[in-house]
Specification:
Length: about 290
């Protein structure tokens, strides 16, 4: 059939999207170590190529992929895990649904292809397992405790001590000790719950805690003004919360706004309470 310029443009976009996703899934299949996941990814890649060939019947020529997009999703899978990358792709697909809606008038098969693609691919993606998600709870535990406990402790120490280097040393010792305690607690808790790898869960918790500690105390090692250091520390804490809640919301398909506000308000509230405690300690106890 003869297509209008508008429909031809929509077909071309769909065709290029399909061949781009073929390259993405093919690359992910090559780097994936889990054999079952590899089979799933290769099956999706084959389906994407088949869809590209269908659209080619209307354009009369093969489409060139968005190589930068393919590289981005492959890199995100290497850095943040397979499921995160796939969920991120799903969000991008949601934005292109209007383009696909305009194509249903071309041929009866188009509607079925679109529906089958959505249902089939999403079902396959849900089957894929990733250790990055398996231990998300452990990472959340480490991050959340470090953010809440250390921002609160640093806020109190800032007003009580007012010496950035002393605060940094005390904060580092406190943070490292707390990270080991938290990792041990996670190990015992995971083992009690029958977690298949309690040691790995505890390592994720401990590393998340230590990483957060290092980020939060860095301003105290580099600045002389304790209040400026505290302000930057609080800003870094919010940034860490922002990054992780975005990752978690994409990977687990949860509300980013609700989780971000929850963690940010909790962390800042504890910091404010401890700042008040530091003030009271400085005023009424420090002289004893």
């Amino acid at each position: 059939m003869t297509l209008t310029p508008q429909l031809l443009s929509a077909v071309s976009r769909a065709q290029r999207n399909e061949i781009t996703e073929f390259h993405v899934y093919s690359r992910l299949a090559k780097i994936e170590k889990n054999s079952e996941n590899k089979k799933i990814l290769q099956k999706i890649a084959n389906d994407e190529h088949r869809h590209h060939d269908f659209w080619q019947k209307f354009t009369g020529k093969p489409a060139a992929p968005h190589r930068l997009i393919a590289f981005f999703y492959t890199l995100s899978a290497r850095l943040f895990g397979l499921v995160f990358s796939l969920r991120l792709m799903e969000r991008g697909e949601d934005l292109s649904q209007k383009n696909y809606e305009t194509l249903k008038s071309i041929a009866p098969e188009v509607k079925n292809i679109i529906e089958d693609e959505e249902a089939h691919e999403h079902a396959l993606i849900d089957m894929i397992k990733s250790s990055h998600l398996e231990y998300t709870g452990s990472i959340v535990l480490g991050l959340n405790d470090a953010l809440v406990e250390l921002t609160g402790a640093l806020a109190g120490l800032t007003l009580a001590l007012r010496d950035t280097h002393l605060i940094a040393v005390v904060g580092l010792i406190t943070g490292l000790a707390a990270s080991m305690s938290m990792a041990a607690s996670e190990y015992l808790s995971s083992k009690e719950e029958g977690h298949k790898n309690a040691l790995k869960a505890s390592v994720y918790t401990g590393l998340a805690y230590v990483g957060t500690v290092i980020i939060l105390i860095t301003p105290y090692f580099t600045l002389e003004n304790p209040f400026a250091a505290l302000a930057i520390t609080l800003g870094l804490g919010i940034f860490v919360i922002l990054i992780f809640t975005f990752y978690s919301s994409v990977a687990n398909k949860t509300s980013f706004k609700r989780k971000f506000l929850e963690m940010a308000l909790l962390s800042l509230s504890i910091a404010a309470i401890n700042f008040l405690i530091g003030y009271l300690v400085k005023k009424y106890i420090a002289d004893f």
